[in-house]
Input
Amino acid sequence: MDDLLAVIVAKYNYWIYVILMMIGFYAMIGKRNLVKKLIGMNIFQTAIILMFVSAGVKHGGKIPILNKYEVLKNGIDATQIVNPLPHVLMLTAIVVSVSITGVALAILLRIYREYGTLEEDEILEKLGK
Amino acid sequence: MKLLQERTQKQQIGQSLIIQTAVRQLVPFVQLFGLYVIVHGHYSPGGGFQGGVILGSSFVMLALAFDQSTSMRLMSERANVMLGNAGVLIFTGVAALCAIVGGLFLDYSALDAIIPLGPVEWRSFGIFLVEVGVGLAVMSIMISLFWDLSSAGEMDEGL
Amino acid sequence: MKALALIATLVTGVILLYGTMDFPAWGDPQSPASGTLSTHYIEKAVEETHVPNIVTAVLGDYRGYDTMFETVVIYCAGLVVISVLRRTKQKQPEKKA
Output
């Protein structure tokens, strides 16, 4: 029981983000409306971003914005500052996610203009399969 | 007060009087805050992308509270495209200028040969120039995405 | 159809949860993610660039290439939306009198 509690406290953030990822994944493959699939993809991307940022946290660490004059005089202890590299990579990932959502919404507008519906099985019927 | 409400209802664009007045008062302050976030990227959380989105959201607020033609009258489509192109060109231009003057691509300390400030200070100023370029590009794209998606291609009236 | 999707989701979830057993503990300062590269960025960023915000210094200077291509990506997304959604006015075919 003690061992199980130690494992849960060490890794519970990864479990929460895996559950969020699976919610988004089910929305992408299990729903029939195209807009709901797009929302599922957005949930999936958000879960991945949060998991990356939480993997770089240190116990008792401060944020990576320092005091310029103090650091130039003394040094800096790198185990007291949170890892800044996942923050940088995830900024790019957020911008890519916004671009993908914008382009997907434009394509959905064209599909609606052409077929008149946004349900997947009705579109497949109209295509004649 | 009753006169103002009747006049707003007769004009038939946009939302009620409260929302129109609040948006009209708030838009300059939102733009100032967006500019502050871009410029203070060195000393506080922020930078190019965040400030660009805040600047773009001020025009989106105008298009939601009033009509889309009001928003397009205040920032014309041509000016929007010019600002977006200028943003990307500033970024690539600064990077190529570093390569032309003598250093590597995106090596800001090589720009010391044009205006002598010191290589370490040029790195800080180069990051600032690049953030301004990124902020302009992101603002233009946010506005253009909203206008296109909300009016389904014909830019006459939106949501 | 929905039952099949639910089973696939549950199987993927169980495999991923089994994979998190190998991860380092949350908040460990000696984990391999906080290895040599990020220690170099934290220690050297202020004295090499005089910018107190380490995230902006890494984004604009050490990883400037990634930021340039990301700006190009969002610019291309704007171009694609314009080109997919605009309709040109069709010219009427000329009728012979």
User: Anything to note?
Assistant: The mean pLDDT of chain C is 85. Residues 6 and 12 of chain C are 10 Å apart (CA to CA).
